[in-house]
Amino acid sequence: MPPAAAPRPYYQLVIPCASQGLEKYLLTKLYDRTFGADPWDRERDAMLGRRLAALQFVTPAHLEVSRELQVGGVEQDGGAGIAAKRQRETWTRPV
Predict the structure, then answer these.
(1) What is the pLDDT of residue 15?
(2) Max Cα-Cα span within the chain
(3) Percent of the chain topping pLDDT 70
(4) Are 29 and 95 in contact (CB under 8 A)?
(5) 4 vs 9, 13, 14, 68, CA distance in Å?
(6) pTM score, two decimals?
(7) Does the pLDDT value for residue 76 go beyond 70?
(8) CA distance linking residue 61 with residue 69, whole number of Å
(9) Buried b (16+ CB within 10 A) or exposed e, 68-86
(10) Torsion of CA 21, 24, 30, 33, to 10 degrees
(11) Phi/psi at 18 (nearest 5 deg)?
(12) Which of the ends of the chain has fewer CB neighbours closer than 10 A, N or C?
């Protein structure tokens, strides 16, 4: 029978929990500054969004993409993209 492990001192158990709690607290307070968008980025995103909206009429036929690439590539990659988007939607940011 192997020897029983010696009990760990209390401080060795508490310090990791305390550091994780402190890290979580700090990141909840600094989240917007750390991961927030710069006003310049927001303006540029809005501009790109308007440009993309203006190009919604473009289809693969306009770009002379062959029929094989239109059907095979979009269905295979589109499913993975939709699954990834749904997964991102389930993630939440700290409150």
Answers:
(1) 80
(2) 75
(3) 74
(4) no
(5) 15, 18, 22, 66
(6) 0.37
(7) no
(8) 11
(9) eeeeeeeeeeeeeeeeeee
(10) 160
(11) -65, -40
(12) N
CA-CA distance, 40 to 13, in Å (whole number)?
A: 45
User: Is the distance from CB of 93 to CB of 31 less than 8 angstroms?
Assistant: yes
Cα–Cα separations (whole angstroms), residue 66 to 56, 62, 63, 76, 89: 19, 11, 9, 16, 33
Distances in Å between the Cα of 31 and the Cα atoms of 2, 5, 20, 95 are: 47, 41, 16, 9
Mean pLDDT estimate for the chain: 78
pLDDT digits (tens, 9 = 90+) for 13-57: 778 888 888 999 998 898 888 888 788 888 999 999 999 999 988
Both tokens of residue 14? 């508490």
